[in-house]
Write a structure and sequence with these properties.
The complex is a heterodimer of chains A (about 110) and B (about 240).
Chain A lengths: L5 H28 L5 H23 L10 H18 L2 H18 L3
Helix pairs in contact in A: 3-4
Chain B lengths: L7 H12 L2 H20 L3 H11 L2 H13 L3 H11 L2 H12 L9 H9 L3 H10 L5 H28 L6 H8 L1 H11 L4 H21 L3 H28 L1
The chains are: A mainly alpha (about 110), B mainly alpha (about 240).
Chain lengths: ~110, ~240
């Protein structure tokens, strides 16, 4: 199935590590140089939040693997229930329970 | 109000306990999902374990396994993983700021090691817990939480490799749904208005951007969402200030 030699396969793992490590390392170095509570730090935080929300929404809307075998409207329904419960009740456990429960029921009863 | 009376050990335990809960099991299952994908892609056991332990960032891991399955060049793998995990830099800057790391004068290797365990779940968790603990208390809390999440992630990875045939996909797909939901619920409830605004804008834009931009969509939606949130917030503040004057 693979076209990689063992050396190449491990080189790939090393490169995947490096491709992540550089960002963490740069982050540690830059964190020292940015004024806390300044506008740049505020912007970095906002972009980080925005990116994380983006990645998670991509997983919800275009999932791979087994999650990809479920329907988009079921996933969005679960998500919507979670958001409403979170905003209304401010209880994290209730929002998660509501979202997952709704999703599980939708997937279980309305088929794949 | 932050409770200032807690000892360091107590805070580490609090972090561990919070991890041995929804986030730990959810992340463990997500890593199980990764191990299943990676095994299908042709990874052997040690490669899967090494990838989870050294990359420790799911979007990059999934990009790696997907490209590996297609026999892509090593250069392409490096670029794709780097692109998928680029937000780590911003998360580390933000995480180091939440934990007030600069005031702690830790050696570089300690800071790098601490931030190695920072992935989306731990970052979102300390952001959410800012209202409960002071930065000094958050450091031991983060240590306990992030290490325990790592243990769950490694356990989930190993379980996925060995028991991929035993885990019913009907069950796994519901469990895997928990991590994105958990993280979205944490970030949407972020303490600062500007960050909540950034979450709404970036989260709404990203899936649409994905259709045209593919892997670049996260970067684009993040930059636009974060900048727009900042612009709107600053504009609103200025207007309020003018009203008062």
């Amino acid at each position: 199935m693979t076209s990689y030699s063992p050396t190449e396969a491990w080189a790939a793992v090393a490169l995947a590590f490096l491709g992540t490590f550089i960002w963490r390392f740069l982050g540690v170095l830059l964190a020292e140089r940015i004024t806390p509570d300044g506008p740049l730090m505020q912007w970095i935080n906002a972009v980080a939040y925005s990116m994380v929300a983006g990645v998670m929404m991509l997983i919800l809307v275009f999932p791979g693997g087994v999650l990809g075998t479920t329907q988009l409207d079921h996933r969005l329904l679960g998500f919507a229930v979670g958001v409403v419960l979170m905003l209304v009740t401010k209880k994290l456990w209730l929002a998660i329970l509501g979202a997952i429960g709704t999703f599980a029921i939708a997937v279980g009863f309305m088929g794949v | 109000m932050p409770d200032t009376s807690m000892a360091k050990g107590q805070l580490i335990r609090r972090g561990v306990v919070d991890a041995v809960n929804i986030p730990g099991f959810a992340l463990g299952s997500t890593m199980t999902g990764f191990a299943v994908i990676a095994k299908e892609a042709g990874f052997d056991f040690w490669m899967i374990v090494a990838t989870t332990a050294s990359v420790w960032g799911l979007p990059g891991q999934v990009a790696f396994a997907s490209l590996y399955a297609t026999g892509a060049s090593l250069m392409l793998i490096f670029v794709a993983v780097a692109l998928a995990n680029m937000r780590m830099m911003l998360m580390v800057i933000s995480g180091a700021d939440i934990l007030h790391l600069r005031e702690r004068n830790l050696p570089l290797w300690r800071r790098v090691l601490m931030m190695h365990f920072l992935a989306i779940t731990s970052w979102a968790q300390i952001g959410f817990m800012q209202t409960r603990y002071s930065p000094d208390q958050l450091v031991p809390y983060y240590t306990g939480f992030s290490l325990m999440i790592f243990v769950f992630g490694m356990t989930g990875t190993v379980a996925g490799f060995f028991f991929d045939d035993l885990i019913p996909p009907e069950f796994l797909r519901i469990i895997i749904f928990i991590t994105p939901i958990y993280i979205l619920m944490l970030v949407i409830n972020s303490r600062q208005t500007i960050n909540r605004l950034a979450v709404v804008i970036g989260g709404s834009l990203c899936p649409f951007f994905y259709l045209g931009l593919g892997s670049w969509s996260v970067l684009a939606a993040g930059l636009i969402g974060g900048s727009m949130a900042m612009g709107l917030f600053t504009y609103h503040q200025r207007r309020n200030a003018n009203d008062i004057l």
